[in-house]
Write a structure and sequence with these properties.
The strands form two sheets. The protein has a four-stranded mixed β-sheet with strand order 3-2-5-4. A hairpin with a 3-residue loop joins strand 2 and strand 3. It is globular, with a radius of gyration of 13 Å. By secondary structure, it is α/β, with parallel strands linked by helices. About 15% of the residues are buried. The protein contains two helices and six strands.
Length: about 80
C-alpha cells in the first residue's frame, strides 16, 4: 500500500486538470548505476498489463506488480525548494 499526503494529492489532481486528462500517476523503480534503484514518476492516461491501481480522491496511483515489493509502505509527498519540486 502507498500513502499519498494531502499536499501531494492536491498537486497530482491539479497537474491532471492542467493536462486536460489523465488516469493518474505511475510509480516505478529502475536500476541506476552502483547505488541501486531510483523512483520514476510519470503521469499516464492508461494501464499496462500487470498494473495494479490504488484509487485516491480523483486519481489513481498505478504500480506494476514487479515493482510492488520495492514500493510497499511508500509515502509520497510534494515539496518545492527553489526551482526543484
Amino acid at each position: 500500500m502507498i500513502t499519498v499526503t494531502s499536499i501531494a494529492q492536491s498537486k497530482i489532481k491539479q497537474t491532471l486538470i492542467n493536462r486536460g486528462h489523465g488516469l493518474g500517476i505511475r510509480i516505478s523503480v529502475k536500476t541506476t548505476g552502483c547505488s541501486g534503484l531510483a523512483y520514476v514518476l510519470e503521469y499516464v492516461d492508461g494501464l499496462n498489463e500487470g498494473d495494479d491501481t490504488e484509487i485516491f480522491d480523483g486519481f489513481n496511483v498505478i504500480v506494476n506488480k514487479k515493482d510492488q515489493p520495492y514500493l510497499t509502505g511508500l509515502t509520497m509527498d510534494y515539496i518545492r525548494k527553489g526551482l526543484n519540486e
